[in-house]
Structure formats: C-alpha cells, structure tokens
Amino acid sequence: MIWFLTIVFIICSHASTSTSANSAGRVEYLPGFQGPLPFYLETGYVGVDEHEDVQLFYYFIRSESNPKHDPVMLWITGGPGCSSISGLLYEIGPIQFEAMHYNGSLPTLILTPNSWTKMASIIFLDIPVGTGFSYARTTRASHSTDIQLCDHAYEFMRKWFESHPEFVSNPFYVAGDSYSGNPVPIITQLISDGNEAGKLPYINLKGYVLGNPVTFPEESNYKIRFANGMGLISDELYKSLFHTCHGEYRSEYISASNIGCHQNLEFYQECIDGIQEPHVLEPYCGDPMQLIKAPTHKQLNEHHPLSSSNCRVYRTKLVYYWILEASVREALHTREGTIREWIRCSDLNFTRTVYDIRPYHQNLSKKGYRSLIYSGDHDMVIPHQSTQAWIRDLNYSVIDQWRSWKLNGQIAGYTERYSNMMTYATVKGGGHTAPEYKPEECVAMFKRWISNQPL
C-alpha cells in the first residue's frame, strides 16, 4: 500500500557533494518485473556544465542483438521537461507496464516485443536540467536555455563515451520526438562540429531520428489544414478561414480589427472542442498538458480512472505508483535528497531561444548525415502537413516518390526519400508519439531504416 502520494525529497545541500560527480551502475532486477532483467540496463549520473553543477541522469540499455557493432542512439523525450522514462516505458524500450486494472499494488512490468533495443543500444537521457532525476547543485545551474541543453547533451555524450570506450566506434545517432525536434538537430551539429575540430573522443556520428518534431514557428498554422482534412471542420469554414486570416492563424499576428478572422477562429475552436489533439480518434480526457502533470494526493487514491477509463493518459500515471516506491528508486541508483519531486513532465526554469530549426537541417544535409523523420498521421499537435512543409523548404530533390510502406501485407504508412539522405514516413493511425500508438509498425520502420533498407 502506498501511503505517501507525492514524491517529496528533502533538498539536502550536501547530498550531491558526497557523491561522485559521474557514477553508473548495472540494474539487474526491477521491482514489478518477475525475475532478473533479460537485457542489460545501466543507470547513472554524468556531471556537465561549469564545475559539473548539472547532474544528468540516464538509463542505458545495451542492444539485445550485437552490441559490439550495433548503433548507439541518444534518446531525448520532448516537453521540454519530460523524463526519458517516457520513451523507455511507453514508446521504444524493452519493458512496459502490464495493461490491467490498477488494484493499489506495485504495477507489473512485462517485456515488449517491439523494442528498438532489438537492433540498437539506447541512452535515455533526462534533459534539460530539472527533468526526471537530473538536478542542479546550485541555483544558477538550475536555469537553462535550449542552447545550454544542447551544450550539456554534447558534453554528456563525450564524457559518456570516455567512460564507455567499447562503444566509441559504433555508429551513433541522436533521436527524440515532439519538442526534441528543437534540440536534436542542434546536438547533432555540435557533435559534427566537434569532430571536425578534432575534439576527443571522436564520435562516429551517422545521423538523427525525429518523430512529429517541433521545427519552425509557422507549424501551428497547419492545424487548420489538418482539421479540414480530417473532417473536423467544413470546407466552407476552411475556405473562409483562409480568406479572412490570409493563412496566418496565430493570434499574435492577427489584427484586432480583423473581425472576420477572429469570428472564424471562434467557430473553429467550437468545432474542435472535445478533440484529443495528440490523437484525434482517441477519447477526449481533458487538456493533455494538464493530465501529464503529477497526480494529486486525491487522484492517486482514486483507482477508478485507471480501471474504468479508456484514456491513454491515465494509464501513463502508472509510472507514479511505480516510481513512488523507495525500492524502485533504490534499484535505479538514484540519489536521494537531490530533487524535491519526481514529475514525468516538469515545469522547468527553462528559456527557449531558438525557434526555427530548418537551418540546422539544411546544414546537416550538406554534411551528408542520414535522417529519418516520421509523423503519426493522426496527431494534431504537430500535424504531418507542417513536417512535410519544412522538408519541402529544404528544397532537395525526391529520389523515391511518395508511396505506401507495408507491414504484414497491410499499409502501415507512406514514405518519400530525398537526395539529402532524408527519409520521411507517416505512421498510419499514429498519434503525437507514434511508437506509443503503433509500436509494431514503428519498430519495423526503424529496423528497416537503421539497416539501410528501404521502408
């Protein structure tokens, strides 16, 4: 029985100073999983920034195939501020919570056949500082920007490879989804620039992977087009919106005197009220950004949302019941007293300073790095039309025309390849984090791409 309902750690100013700045340990057993883990899991901290005042926590899972030669991938969950445990337990990792009515006991972990670790070693990193179990040792270090996030990630990787030299020659990729569309290309460029400058260790960078990525300021405009294509608004309203708003639907760019545009946007909001934007076909469960926050004392005591609701976001709350247990945090080798509260998606002391990532994609394309960009095609948060728009803006020629890609004889999505070694793919029926909704299709997509096979 869980008696305390919010993970409250007493912040102890001496807790981190008595612990090695960089530490790692193997995890052979996890509470909730029957028996020893059948894969290699390591967790630890790496200190970065001035005086290593930023301590970044990670989960490392070695490839279950051929770790000596398989690619190594850094995975950053979006947000910013969402713990990488989201990617591990809900998207691409080898274990997940068993789908069952929650009865108040420790949630059960089971193996999943759709793990990307079948063909790659993956480092799930809690970043930026303040995310998950990552923490700052000073007040100044607790604030970061997206550029600092990227600097920290690059420093993390260099130090991680220094302590794991057996992986330094493996092909390396940077990956993530949602807001990670912002830092992943920047991190990739930092690694590339560091290699060219002769910084050691040399990282065998090959490319990057992004799902439904935040990329450029105008992408929210494509929600209107998506809504029309999905039949959420009428053709008449779509045409009227385009005519009165001139294709620009962001409120800060619409004149107060443009009454027609404002009225049409109100009609639009009425039409989509009750639509679950991360996946428009799923039940509406309230504001997704509020539902991913830490549950309250009352919510954790109410078992019925987990047992009777079809809402996917309620099922993600199982991680709180699991990670609240002291035995789980002990098994993960976390440092007690370093964070006040573990929240899957935290409100951070974070400033965004880069809004258009297209120049980074352009530069990486010129350098010849491979990239896989995929979109769950039922996501309204970052619609697939906006991703296709910025890919077109790169202005590279198409070398494999738009076509379907299949799994088990069925269409799993559509794909197109470009002369800059970029592959774009939709995942049919996928939502904002496509592997969460369509794990079998996404692992097939990734396996083919990482093996240099056509989708």
UniProtKB/TrEMBL annotation:
GO terms for biological process: proteolysis; secondary metabolic process. PANTHER family: SERINE CARBOXYPEPTIDASE-LIKE 19, SERINE PROTEASE FAMILY S10 SERINE CARBOXYPEPTIDASE. It is found in: Secreted. The keyword Secreted applies. The keyword Isomerase does not apply. Residues 1-15 form the signal peptide. It comes from Helianthus annuus (Common sunflower). Pfam families: Peptidase_S10. Keywords: Carboxypeptidase, Disulfide bond, Glycoprotein, Hydrolase, Protease, Secreted, Signal. This is Peptidase S10, serine carboxypeptidase, alpha/Beta hydrolase. It comes from the Eukaryota. Belongs to the peptidase S10 family. The gene is scpl2. One of its GO terms (cellular component) is extracellular region. One of its GO terms (molecular function) is acyltransferase activity, transferring groups other than amino-acyl groups.
